[in-house]
Amino acid sequence: MKILVTGGLGFIGSHTVVELQNDGFEVVIIDDCSNSSEKVLEGITSITGKTPIFEKIDLKEKDDVADFFKRYHDITGVIHFAASKAVGESVENPLLYYENNIGTLVYMLKELSKKERSNFIFSSSCTVYGQADEMPITESAPVKVAESPYGNTKQMGEEIIADTCKVTQGLNAIALRYFNPMGAHPSAEIGELPLGVPQNLVPFITQTGVGLRDELSVYGNDYPTKDGTAVRDYIYVVDLAKAHVIALKRLMEGKNQSNYEVFNVGTGTGSSVLEVIQSFERVSGKKLNYKIVDRRPGDVISAYADTAKANEELGWKSEYTLDQAMKSAWVWEQKVRNKS
Length: 340
Description:
By secondary structure, the chain is an alpha/beta fold. 39% of the residues lie in helices and 18% in strands. It has helices at residues 11-22, 40-48, 62-71, 87-92, 94-112, 149-167, 201-209, 237-252, 273-284, 308-314, 322-336, and strands at 2-6, 26-30, 53-55, 75-80, 118-125, 171-178, 180-182, 216-219, 231-232, 234-236, 260-265, 271-272, 290-293, 302-303. Helix 2 (40-48) links the parallel strand 2 and strand 3 (53-55). Helix 9 crosses helix 11.
C-alpha cells in the first residue's frame, strides 16, 4: 500500500516514514526542503534498509499537486505534515502561514475528494485548546480563540477537513492533536534539526548543553504551577510517529466511528520547564546554564493531555519516559555537532 507523507523530511514526518516502512508500507515523500534537508533520506534508508520515493514539490503550486496525484493514482493514504510551524514567525508574517498551511491543505483535499476512497491523517496541535479551563485536556475541551496565526491555521485546518468530510463520500480523516514532541530516533540517524534559533525548548536545551548557545532563557517563574515555570506534555517523537501509523490503519481497516475523528497524542503527564532542565542534567551529567526572564506573550500556563481516548479507541499509548526521550535528544545533538 502506497502512503503519501507530506513534509516527510521534517522532524515528525521523517520518524513517521521510518515507522511506516518498518510496518511494510511503501512511502512517497513530498517536501519542498524549505525547513528540512534531502540528507534526511540517508538516515531513513540507514534505519529501514529502504529508500522512500521522494518528490520535491511546493504544495502551494496547485497544478503541481494535481499533477502528482495523476502520476500517483494508487495512493491509498495521506499523512499531512507539510506546514510552517513557528508561532513567533506566524505573528510577524501571518499571510505566509495562511497561504502555506491553509492553501496547501485545500489543494490536497481537492485532489483526495476526486478519489473513490481516501484516508487522511492531519497533523494538528494542542494549540487549538489555548489555555484550557481544566487539566488534563480532553478532546471535548472547547477550542479557544487562537493565540497566534499558527494556532489559527490548525483550528481552521480541522474545520476545513470536518466540513469536507461531511460532503465527501469516501473521505475518512483523523486529526491528531499533538502536545510537545521531542527526542530523536534511537539510532541517532534522524532527529530534530531546527534551522536557525530553535523555537522549541528541548533543542534549545541540548544546543546550550553542547555549547552552541550561551544560555537558555526560562520565560517566567511566577506561573501558578508547582515550581512557577510553565508546564507542558513532552512526548517522544517515535511514540508520536507510531500513533500516526495506528491512526492510518484504523481508517484503512474501517474501524473509525465516524468519517472525521480527533485524538489527543501526549503522555498525560505535565512537566515544568525546570523539570525538563533537570531531566537534561540527569541524562547528560552536565549543569545547564540558564536564567529566568520575563514571561513571553501568548504562552499558556499549563497544557497536558488526557490520553484516555487514544489509549482506548486507538489502542495507542506513549512508552518512553521524559528522561529516555531527553537522552535520545542529547545523543543526537552530540552526533550532529561531532561531539559524541
